[in-house]
Amino acid sequence: MKMEIRVRYAPSPTGYLHIGGARTAVFNYLFAKHHNGKFIVRIEDTDLERNIADGISSQLDNLRWLGLEIDETIDHEGKYGPYQQTKRLDIYRSHADKLIADKHAYHCFCTNEALDKMKAEQQKVGIFSFQYDGRCAKLSPAEVKKNLADKVSFAIRLKTPKNKIFTINDMVREEVSFNTKDIGDFVIIKSNGVATYNFAVVIDDYLMKITHVLRGEEHLSNTPKQLLIYDYFNWQAPRYGHLTLIISETGKKLSKRDGSLMQFIEQYRNQGYLSEALFNFISLLGWSSHQEREIYTKSELIKIFNSDYFSKAPSMFDVRKLLWMNNYYIKNLTQEQYLNLVVPFVKSEHDWESKDEQWWQELLLIYQKQLMYGAEINELISLFFENKPPLTKEAQDFLQTNPDASKKVLDDFKAKLATTDDWSLQEIENIIQQVKADTKITGKMLFMTIRIACSRQTHGPELAKTIKLLGKEQVLTRLTDLKL
Ligand code: GLU
């Protein structure tokens, strides 16, 4: 029987779902689904001080919003639960005890002061990556027994051999070798009884029958520690793949502190990005389809997700590409879906009742082709709500190219508008044609002058529709206010 592929995304609820985490989750999901396997989300919450109150719910909620169906997790358990590390502390402890019994681990009674002193002494002789000196490994069984009976606080450390080489066949980097010489005996259970990440992750991946681990390259340096634990238990390690960095346009690693770029899925969601677009965009951060196309649905990606195509170079988070892609998906929404996307943004800034439903729909729909994200709608429609919008620089420049012609167009257009009772699209188009016939001014001079007079801008949605939606009174006021 073929082995079932089981992968996991293992967020620490110390923050919200970040682009980097989402990429790891999406790749694991696609890999699992491509192979008809299982996608598991395990909550790694052993760093108690750093956990945030809504960390878990926000991680799960945003993963699901992105479209990831989770086969096993805390609120949807499979048979390998619990799926939250703080609920598994006894499991880690009993495994640590086994390692102690096998002499691969030992109790360390060193106080923080003793460890600080050790660190300072190492630094004095130029060693800056601290390594525990192994003193508690030398305690006699009687000393250990006495300390335990006296309830002296302890951690559990793993014995680390000096020069063991581990070699893995990484799914992204191919062959990678590690030497244990720089590791030192590290803590697997802290003095508060909680397992450390490197220990818990191994126990869980093994017990949850995880076959492949795709994760960020920042975990590469943890891999030898984890391999050592597998080795001591005589367990087979999963196949690893360490995904390359995501970098910003300036070439730097995305930093959560960099406020110039939105980095959390929730922020994109709140700004009215579509989950399908984000999923598509994220799937191409460090993976390529080896085709010319950029647009893929989730099911297409599941079908073509080939793990030979992970990129070896860092991938750039290209904001413009994301905007382009989101716009592509917005253009393809049905009218109803589109209105569902934009109306809440509009209602948050405008008095919806002040106009009728039909007017709003017409207004909002003229922007569907252009809109890049939901929240942008308020910026786009603002020209319909300002009483005296300022002239843009381009508009001013244009009006100076031939003021006489512009004035002629405007006077005639205004006179004709003022006398019409019919404010239909057809009539507005007719009037523009009559202005053209009467003034003999055509093309850009005609249309741009009218556009600027009505909107104060050189770009915008379809002219006659804009005029219709602005309404007669507003258009006449704007025409009167424009001094040429
Ligand atoms: N909890 C780890 C993190 O949030 C994931 C570790 C792993 O995938 O092995 O970075």
Automatic annotation (TrEMBL):
Its main location: cytoplasm. It is found in: Cytoplasm. One of its GO terms (cellular component) is cytosol. Coiled coil: none annotated. SUPFAM superfamilies: An anticodon-binding domain of class I aminoacyl-tRNA synthetases, Nucleotidylyl transferase. It comes from the Bacteria. CDD domains: GluRS_core. A motif ('KMSKS' region) lies at residues 253-257. A motif ('HIGH' region) lies at residues 11-21. Keywords: Aminoacyl-tRNA synthetase, ATP-binding, Cytoplasm, Ligase, Nucleotide-binding, Protein biosynthesis. Residues 340-480 form the Aminoacyl-tRNA synthetase class I anticodon-binding domain. GO terms for molecular function: ATP binding; glutamate-tRNA ligase activity; tRNA binding; zinc ion binding. Belongs to the class-I aminoacyl-tRNA synthetase family. Glutamate--tRNA ligase type 1 subfamily. Monomer. This is Glutamate--tRNA ligase.
